Amino acid sequence: MQSTMQDYQLTIASLMHHGTSVHPDSEVVTATAEGSRSITYAELGKRTARLAGALRALGIEGDDRVATFQWNNAEHLEAYLAIPSMGAVLHTLNIRLFPEQLIYVANHAEDKIVIVDDSLVGLLAPQLPHLETVTHVLVAGPEAAQANLDSLRSSGKEVLLYEDVLAEQPETFDWPELDENDAAAMCYTSGTTGNPKGVVYSHRSAYLHSMASCTGNVAGLTFADRVLPIVPMFHANAWGLAYAAIMSGASLCMPDRWLQAEPLVRFVTESRPTISGAVPTVWNDVLTHLDDHPEVKLDSLRRILCGGSAVPVSLMQALRERHGLDMIQAWGMTETSPVASVANVPLGIRGEEEWRYKATAGRLLCGVEGRIVADDGSVLPRDGEAVGELEVRGPWVTAGYYASDDPDAEAKFDHGWLRTGDVGTLDHLGYITLTDRAKDVIKSGGEWISSVDLENALMGHQAVLEAAVVGIPDEKWQERPLATIVVKQGATVTADELREHLAGDFAKWQLPDAFAFIEEVPRTSVGKFDKKVLRQRFREGELRVEPLS
Amino acid sequence: MQSTMQDYQLTIASLMHHGTSVHPDSEVVTATAEGSRSITYAELGKRTARLAGALRALGIEGDDRVATFQWNNAEHLEAYLAIPSMGAVLHTLNIRLFPEQLIYVANHAEDKIVIVDDSLVGLLAPQLPHLETVTHVLVAGPEAAQANLDSLRSSGKEVLLYEDVLAEQPETFDWPELDENDAAAMCYTSGTTGNPKGVVYSHRSAYLHSMASCTGNVAGLTFADRVLPIVPMFHANAWGLAYAAIMSGASLCMPDRWLQAEPLVRFVTESRPTISGAVPTVWNDVLTHLDDHPEVKLDSLRRILCGGSAVPVSLMQALRERHGLDMIQAWGMTETSPVASVANVPLGIRGEEEWRYKATAGRLLCGVEGRIVADDGSVLPRDGEAVGELEVRGPWVTAGYYASDDPDAEAKFDHGWLRTGDVGTLDHLGYITLTDRAKDVIKSGGEWISSVDLENALMGHQAVLEAAVVGIPDEKWQERPLATIVVKQGATVTADELREHLAGDFAKWQLPDAFAFIEEVPRTSVGKFDKKVLRQRFREGELRVEPLS
């Protein structure tokens, strides 16, 4: 018996047609130095068609790659929609990549055209001569004409103004029929070993991830929402918030390059988003700003999504208690599109116990299956206790990497499951608790010590701005935890006080034996703690370890 | 460039595994004569495995069809999950089908096994001997052992107790790998011409429809919700509410056969659903009951979905104003899985204008494309004015009918679009306004008269329980509207008063020239007004038309 249902393809084009035609009055607001600028979704649809026409006119055919080097703004959104919808592949370049990584990924993906923001011309120009396959650069943004175009032109590439090429094109485009399994977009993960590895999303994976984001258990987006993606569109698709907003008809509030607490808070009060998403450091800065400006209220926000690295409970508690803001932790990675789990609190849980669940990496979404696997490859019980590596699979999880020459790439997969590299537990309600990145695990005397738990507890101390805990070699115990601490401006705290602060919540053998006060925690290009660098600094004697009394 | 994403199949099995493993504490509550009975989703998962084992043991292989003849209850839900997940095809038999239709559809689908509720044995028994391909009948429900099993056995089929066959099977089942395009379930539409026609849903269509139901623009289901599907599971999949609840982890409140206002309202107050769905007549009865019992509050309900036929604005207003209940109209049909549009009010609309949007058939969901087509096949503008037939397409819209011998079946499709048979307009915000079924259209002097608008207005009169308007032949005008009226118990109203009541909202030429008071509106087997019967009664002189002064 055959199903009688239509063979309708789940494509970014169909999502774009829906959003721009059924929700023509929704808007994209982009922050500017003075305030903001806006276009409606109806206009967005026309500009998307113009962009597709322009790219086709410049020679983009088939699955050619078009790269973006942009902040979160209306033009980046146009690229998000036009490039996949015309059948090409969107390659979001991380503007924070180290130069050699940027050159590697652009050449590896064979990018043909790069769209760059006016404000990022200076950052791109030095690398542009080395982007071998790039033929054209389009400079976007209100100040594009005033940018230093010569610095780009000296590369020998053809440099055009984005608005000029759009103006030459009609408001409609002959969108091709696409297969939902066609490549739509790609994003490289900044691995800490070897070259970056590319994940190639399909139209289908982006569509299904967007649908999941619109469900009640994730963000429950409706066309009455206003979505503020602070997490960059060059980082794991801004957690899918851009496509999900278009799908639901929610308006988008785009912060562009105004990511410091003061302009960001101002943009929130002016553009009144209902949902936002960013990494913990951003919210930490926002919290400090709100604490200093008690007259400011972010009362339009009904839900704040936070992830990218473990979210300190103290941050969530401070936001709720002092500012009435509800922060929800989510977990995922570039390889999972990225959202895989969201830490909603289970039904019937009240009071203090709530925080136990809000501290987890979240509950598995429908569509993402998870399991915990031991070192020997056996699947461990889902009891919230057995610790092992988290493996996931699902329609928006990658099965491999694009043309990778990394011999380790294959080891990231286990019979159809993605090995996440995250270590932790899974409980009978589908909540994931992560204790460490596999590569950052601290094993002392045969027992795990969770750096994440220690960091969370340390960041709960009023004098601590940030804390990163790494394992350092120990003759007797194999490894022991070292806590590196960034103290808040104007505050003071001693190693003994911090150890005392931890003593109530941890067994004695879990407490760090060594504390080092540092200026800032080194970070990777996507803003995560770079513990490899911390361990290296320790080895090279660059960290001054404070004596404990 | 190939996408690197996993080839993960969207199946009812994966939805079932998610719901029963990640939400083990959610529950299925089934109404009983005395109160209710409950099982958890963890138990549901085990019983689903047992049922699959039992069906396999009874010879169900491949895509064999297993039929259900059941109310909305836990056992029907087990069939919903087990049958498609084991690779077989669920055929939901409409218990209200006329005997010859029931026999036709069961034979046409070649059903092998029928699962029947204890309370429905008497309804099935007379037809059972004619169900040629059926070999076994499983009798489900707490009273199964007390049912008149002999009345079934006399058919020569093997008759077994559902609980007995489940008890013999293990709590786990070796679920097969399925393709998402495999047939999962089927439902026949009770066409008013020719034999019923079967729609065969795929795993993919059911999965995507469930995801859509969980999005904020539809029901926004979360695991904190409790879903009460009053619309039968044998009627267009209970609007997808059963699968959507499992997917989101929402609990289910199943009314079984207690669909009269009094036990239904009691079940709502006891099981405390947050979301419910039913046709207007059910809510009409509930409204009358609530009006008579002002002490009863249905305050657990945050959203009431209504559809299946046009929802009178007066009903929605009465529920909101007198009982604080928010009713949302949705539109769809068996051929669209069924939900295609939901009448959320656009952003920024307040006061009286709200009702204009709440009166529509709703706004197109992402995934469903719609267009209005003229008689000559041309596509009309989406301006809210041009009237034509609504055509839709999408991943949960059918492309045909199962092995249909109806020569008209092909005419239901237009180059990949489903011709819905509904006539109306589409506006620039994607709102559908339906004025008539194509076959019920009234065309007077070359102009459309909307029977739906007239019915809505008539049902807004305090003395009118129900109103159905049909076109009757007219020498001068080709057709003129005849209003048939069911007066509320104890109330009185005259034809003149009703015409006067309409005069404010309609042009004179649109007003019915003829009124007939009837005992009840004839209905099809799915509870819709059967206007074919009304027109026939008029032709045969069975309707007494009241003189207007």
Explain what the structure shows.
- The structure is a homodimer of 549-residue chains.
- The first copy, chain A, is of the alpha/beta class and 549 residues long.
- Chain A has a domain at 441-546: 2-Layer Sandwich (GMP Synthetase, Chain A, domain 3).
- Helix content of chain A is 28%, strand content 26%.
- In chain A, strands 1, 2, 10, 11, 12, 13, 14, 15, 16, 17, 18, 19, 20 and 21 form a 14-stranded mixed beta sheet that branches.
- Chain A is globular and about 75 Å long.
- The termini of chain A are far apart.
- The mean pLDDT of chain A is 94.
- Chains A and B meet through helix 1, strand 8, strand 9 and helix 8 of A and helix 1, strand 8, strand 9 and helix 8 of B.
